[in-house]
Amino acid sequence: MTSETTPTAPVTTTPVTAATPVTAAASGTWTLGDRTVHRIGFGTMRLPQTGPALVPHAVPRDREQALRVLRRAVELGVNHIDTAAFYFSRLRSANELINRALAPYGDDLVIATKVGPARGLDGEWAEHARTPERLRAQVEQNLRELGRDHLDLVNLRIHGTDSVAERFGALAELRQAGLIRHLGLSNVRPHQLAEAQAIAPVVCVQNPYGIGASPEQDELLRLCGEQGIAFVPFYAIAGAGREGGASGASEAEPTQVRAVAEARGISTAQVRLAWTLHRGPHVLAIPGTGDVAHLEDNIAAGELRLTAEELALLDEAHAG
């Protein structure tokens, strides 16, 4: 008699791997005109240099490092990138870095740029573009540097409280001509938004916003939400540090922000981004960095869901 044995299944082991990184999809989506984007995007202001941005003698960032950051952002699902032709250092241009890293561009990628501010080749600020001719020249510069035949989204950046009608009208004509797909505004007041809307559709407003922002910015955020307009805050992490970044802020991080960060075991930057995204489904974040690890941390903030208690605490910090 022979005995039979039941064969056992081979033992398999799962290799130990690093935790799967959070992607931008965790932040949810919003529609910019006819384009759907993840609510966590990427801003390129810090990419061309190390240290403070938009200064004449900034130290150029390592080129390969900058390209890695852009490619990693897209790998992690970022499909809303904010740039400008005036984002440059002596050897680096944000637009040209984007072109080099990401062209040919994916169909779902939205590249938003802005016009109005101007800098000379020496990096010093020049007079804002206020005429149709100068605005068109800036649009064409962005097209040339990005290697595109149209721009997905152009924000008119405003300095002051005067009328935007002539400038926004000039961009509306370029939209009609097919050079621009969608229009937005940056650094504006409610009356300027209303003025622009009477000329052409406005799909987004880019204004400074984050914990500690003024009541006027809270009001504009609310107004955009009521009208279905994306609100895209800049300096959401940097706060008072502005172009210098979070490390350039003159005031210490509020105790409430530090408390939430310590309790969660996360960075204060992630807390600030999560709070900003909680301000409404129409809020899109565009944190910028030149470091891959910081990029991944920023994107991971899109997954954070703050509790009612944490939100109340952070609202205290916001109210000052």
**Helicity, in percent?**
25-40%
Q: How far apart are the first and last residues' alpha carbons, in Å?
A: 88 Å
Instruction: Give the structural class.
Output: alpha/beta
Q: How many helical elements?
A: 10
| Widest β-sheet, arrangement of strands | 3-6-7-10-11-12-13
Largest sheet: 7 strands, parallel
Strand elements, count: 13
Q: What is the mean pLDDT? A: 92
- Strand percentage lies at 15-25%
Low-confidence runs: 1-17
Rg for CA atoms: 22 Å
N-to-C order of helices and strands:
EEEEEHEHEEEHEHEHEHEHHHH
Q: Can you offer a commentary on this structure?
A:
The chain is 35% helix and 16% strand. By secondary structure, the chain is an alpha/beta fold. The strands form four sheets. A seven-stranded parallel β-sheet has the order 3-6-7-10-11-12-13, with helices on one face. Helix 1 packs across helix 2, helix 7 crosses helix 8 (268-277) and helix 7 (255-264) packs antiparallel against helix 10 (308-319). The chain is globular and about 55 Å long. The protein starts with 28 loop residues before the first strand and ends with a helix. Residues 1-17 have low confidence and may be disordered.
Give the helices and strands, then pairings.
Blueprint: E1 29-32, E2 35-38, E3 42-43, E4 49-50, E5 59-60, H1 63-75, E6 80-82, H2 94-102, E7 110-115, E8 118-119, E9 125-126, H3 132-146, E10 151-157, H4 165-176, E11 180-186, H5 190-197, E12 204-208, H6 215-227, E13 230-234, H7 255-264, H8 268-277, H9 292-300, H10 308-319
Parallel strand pairs: 3-6, 6-7, 7-10, 10-11, 11-12, 12-13
Antiparallel strand pairs: 1-2, 4-5, 8-9
Helix pairs in contact: 1-2, 1-9, 7-8, 7-10
